[in-house]
């Protein structure tokens, strides 16, 4: 993964609402969520949510799929894993890290 991609992803997540949306989609898993469900749970106007979903898509953190009349948004887990991998590459100067979770690196 290129450093510029990581910067774009982290910049997209550096906004409160986008971070909330992304975390909500991570929790939803492969089933994803419709914009209406996201908007309702976060009490955010549809136009505002649309803008932020577009930003998350441009950062490759979220995917969109049409299901009949509905759009389904999902967290892009492969991209999220690549960002985490970039951030933790060579963690602890190459020494094995404690295995407390799949996404953390503790020296």
From TrEMBL:
Record-level Gene Ontology MF annotations: DNA binding; DNA-binding transcription factor activity
Domain annotation HTH arsR-type: ranges: 1-95
InterPro entries with a match to the protein in the record: ArsR-like_HTH, HTH_ArsR_DNA-bd_dom, Metal_resp_trans_reg, WH-like_DNA-bd_sf, WH_DNA-bd_sf
| Presence of the UniProt keyword Transcription in the record | yes
| Protein keywords | DNA-binding, Transcription, Transcription regulation
GTP-binding recorded as keyword: no
What's a Pfam family in this record? HTH_20
Q: Which domain of life is it from?
A: Bacteria
Q: Provide the transmembrane region boundaries.
A: none
Q: Which CDD domains match?
A: HTH_ARSR
Tell me the Gene3D superfamilies matching this sequence: Winged helix-like DNA-binding domain superfamily/Winged helix DNA-binding domain
This chain's protein is named: Regulatory protein, ArsR
């Amino acid at each position: 993964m290129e450093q510029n991609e990581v910067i774009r992803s982290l910049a997209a997540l550096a906004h409160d609402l986008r971070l909330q949306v992304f975390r909500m989609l991570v929790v939803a898993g492969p089933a994803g969520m419709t914009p209406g469900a996201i908007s309702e749970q976060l009490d955010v106007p549809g136009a505002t949510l649309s803008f932020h979903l577009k930003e998350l898509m441009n950062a490759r953190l979220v995917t969109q799929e049409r299901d009949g009349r509905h759009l389904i948004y999902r967290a892009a887990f492969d991209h999220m894993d690549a960002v985490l991998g970039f951030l933790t590459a060579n963690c602890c100067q190459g020494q094995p890290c404690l295995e407390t979770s799949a996404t953390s690196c503790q020296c």
